[in-house]
Amino acid sequence: MVCIFAADNEAERKGTSGSLLLLSTNMATETNIETVKRILLTLLYDDIFFVDMKVKPTNNIKIFLDADSGLGIEKCIKINRALYKIMDEMGIYPEGDFSLEVSSPGIEEPLKIHRQYVKNIGRFVEVTLNDESRKEGKLTAVNEEDIVIEFTEGKGKKALEQKLSLPFTDIKTTKVQIKF
Fold it and tell me: Which of 12, 45, 62, 105 is the S-S candidate for 54 at Cβ 3.0 to 4.6 Å?
């Protein structure tokens, strides 16, 4: 967030001008972010979908995309170049003081949206619940209210396959696990 504080002596005594300017600067920054997102959504093609956007105070914009069939670096580069060109031509950041990164979230990032859960059915996940307890298993189903994971309890002849339904409201984070 870029904050500019300016006030004349009269406004400083009243305590008004600085906060109004700060509010308008925040609103301008929010407008830029919404504009970037709106442009980005028009550039998505095939099965590519928006996951998240992070903006640092230095106008470093990180956009995370995913695709049902996997997101290769070529697609990220294509979208990055197109978005950068449009942002530059539109003068969203008039001084050109921004950087843009487009990538997939990566395996270390938790799943954020419903479509990511659906994409990862059949993979092993670690679910951290709101009470900080953890559950691991194979993601076998996803619906609007919850997910279902399957796991083995016990060993050898006493091993039993269990299914556990976890409501989204109880889930803090879900991360895909790599099993070798």
Answer: 62
Residue with tokens 């091993």, as numbered in its chain: 159
DSSP string, 45-109: -TTEEEEEEEE-TT-EEEEEEEETT---HHHHHHHHHHHHHHHHHHTSSTT---EEEEE---TTS
Sign of the C-alpha dihedral computed for residues 92, 95, 96 and 101 taken in this order: negative
| Per-residue model confidence (pLDDT) at position 161 | 93
Q: Count H helices, E strands: the chain?
A: 4, 8
Taking only the tens place, the pLDDT of each residue in 33-86 is 899 999 999 999 999 999 999 999 888 999 999 999 989 999 999 999 999 999
Tokens for 46, please give them.
């095939």
Q: Could you identify the residue written with the tokens 């070798």?
A: 180
Asked if residues 101 and 61 have their Cβ atoms less than 8 Å apart, the reply is: yes
Q: Provide the 10 A C-beta neighbour count for residue 111.
A: 24
The span from the first CA to the last CA of the chain, in angstroms, equals 42
Please, which residues bridge with residue 148 across strands? 141, 165
Tell me how long the chain is. Answer: 180
Backbone angles phi, psi at 60, to 5 degrees: -85, 110
